[in-house]
Design goal:
This protein starts with 12 loop residues before the first strand and ends with a helix. The protein is of the alpha/beta class and about 375 residues long. The protein folds into two domains: about 170 residues, Rossmann fold (3-Layer(aba) Sandwich); about 170 residues, Phosphoglycerate kinase, N-terminal domain (Rossmann fold, 3-Layer(aba) Sandwich). It is built from 14 helices and 17 strands.
Amino acid sequence: MINLTSIDITNKNLVMRVDMNVPLKDGIVLDATRIEACLPSIEHALKNKAKILLISHLGRPSEGNFDEQFSLRPVAEHLSKIINQCCELIDSPESNKIFNTNSDIQLLENIRFFHGEKINSNELGLKLANLGDIYVFDAFGTAHREQASTHSAIEQSKIACAGLLLEKENNFLTKALNNYEDPYVAVIGGAKVSTKLELIQHINCVAKNIIVGGGIANTFISAAGFNVGNSLIEESMIGVAKEILSDGKILLPKKVITSKTFEGENIQEKFIEEIENDDMILDLCIEKDIYEILSSSKTILWNGPMGVFENKLFEKGTKDISEAIAKSDAFSIAGGGETLSAINKYINSDDVSYCSTGGGAFLEFMEGKILPSIKALNAKNKER
């Protein structure tokens, strides 16, 4: 895969697909992590006297219609402050201002405002590809989607390359996927087994142990024959969970935190054998054996919280697992929005070897799938 540093971009016009889908409130960026992740590619391009047109989506607007609440204007303003120069907002891919103003960096309005993005339109893809000299794909978080700006534009560009973030994601995730050191331990949490079934099945083939949490743990606890009361589970996944349990790699919690309500009525610490019919499992206890497993591991994959960590009453499991991973000397990789929120809340992100910017893209990559955008880049590179 050709990357941004391996081609001559001096005085070139770069169309750069990035992921600046950030949370906003009242026109203010609440979390700039995704914007900051794009900076290495942006700074490298500007240093080499290239001009940049950034492309991103924001939220889920109705395609084909401008909607102020999904405008990228606050993102352009925030980026301008970070890089200390004006990032000009461009209202349309047909605008004659593209690469024709004094601004070295521009940001196209939300790509989902334009017809054809979601259906991977060849017409829109070609239009985007022809806006500049080189199409740079640096939006790992959208690399699993076949859309006009993430797929068709790459296929139809004269020259396409990977941005520095995409290259970094690819290198770190490939290490965790194919070049890992044993013992390999996975920590998989979140609400539903179904959304992470392929990841669990893939990891089950390579990991020594899988530590489960959240609603996922509840489903496995139920599959193991224990009462889970009113806890969140997926009945349709019980059979699959039993099959996975039979391999002996899933580590069920010994103790959990229960409550009668989400508000915290009658909170108790219980062994899983003691769950009553009106209990809800909302967190779990990290026991000594789990700490020892994480401490002795060489590779750790983490995706998903251990409980309802947004509520301080049920955050201990996620907090403890965060701190245990941070203290481990293992190569650790984490991905998913809730996982990154937990890292930012409880530990220093530098304590994890690599934090992926992807959610769905992270899951699909770690399931062993070749993401559509990466596949398109590889095919385009073979044409050269």
